[in-house]
Amino acid sequence: MSITIFRTPTELVLGTGSVKQIGEKARVLGATNILIVTDNVLNQNGLVNKVIAPLKEANFTVDVIDEVIPEPPFENLEAMTEKIKGKRYDLFVGFGGGSVMDVTKVLATLMTNDVDVRNLVGIDKVAQKGIPFILIPTTSGTGSEVTWNAIFTDTKDNVKKGIVSPYLLPDVAIVDAELTLGVPPAITAATGMDALVHAVESFTALRANELTDGIALQAIKLITRSIRTAVYNGENLSAREDMAMGSLLAGISLGNAGVGAVHALAYPLGGKFKVPHGVANSLLLPYVMKYNVISNLEKFAEVAKVLGENVDGLSLREAADRAVYALNKMSRDVGIPASMKDLGVTEEDIPALAEEASKIDRLLNNNPRGLTKMDIEQIYRECFEGNLELDCFGHL
Ligand SMILES: [Fe+2]
To answer: The Alcohol dehydrogenase iron-type/glycerol dehydrogenase GldA domain covers which part of the protein (predicted)?
Structure first.
């Protein structure tokens, strides 16, 4: 194994009801004046009180900013930075989905780094740690609470851009499945499939290692066991617990092994067509994996098994193909659209999408099989038609 660095947040607080620990965690971090970062949906539906109440009870001064918008552009972050300028917060709490958590990470960073946020795009561009922050996910999917990435939309070219720095890891992540009970089916499906993509992509990525492999496989197992129940019976706490844990594990695996071409091809769909991140990933997953499968048959056969496929008596190649079949089936089962056509993309858009995706070397270089721009275009065309050909034995 080559030299590898494995990172997670300093502390993970897990389990149903764990959000009540927020006061104690804030005290240990030396906080007095706390800003809760969230979105207006969570503020208006009152879920944010799950974190405000225990903090107020413990006599902290608490302000709330609820202006995070989905797939946030840099301008969203800048407007919030302007608004809180001069206020002496000593702890941020990011309470929400991936967008809220990504904004919180960078907002905390900008408190101690006086730079244009665009100059932080790329790997290791953050000079110093920001103020302390705690992340609390309210969806199960992005894994942002355990990664050191934050993704923003650049409105100048409509491209998703990533800030990657170990300083974006939170001081504490609190993962409480109870907070996800009211998430609607479509969001449960999209975020849950995003988590599955994190697990499958990081398991088959070039930077995968023994440590991340075990974590990724456990994530696939938990998500496979419970995603359908979580989507169609959202009040089922044990399914929500599996999804919360699966998403967390997938996030740890993604943070350390990275992801690949599914994410690279999904980002242009998010930037140009505003397709939600999880939907774009889920839609592309079987098509990219169909392309990738030949590059590592052993690993894909293992994925098939963990996805619950019966691979007894199959050749390694056939077993590996079953993974593609099962991923496609799961995506259909939870109601993800079947083709790019269904998302308002036209055939004429494909060359520009491929051009955009082909530039995302950070992800493409970690994919188990190399891709030319032509390969990317071909995958988009297959996904545009949505006709993944699979017979009843799973042959492609
Ligand atoms: Fe993702």
So the answer is: 9-176
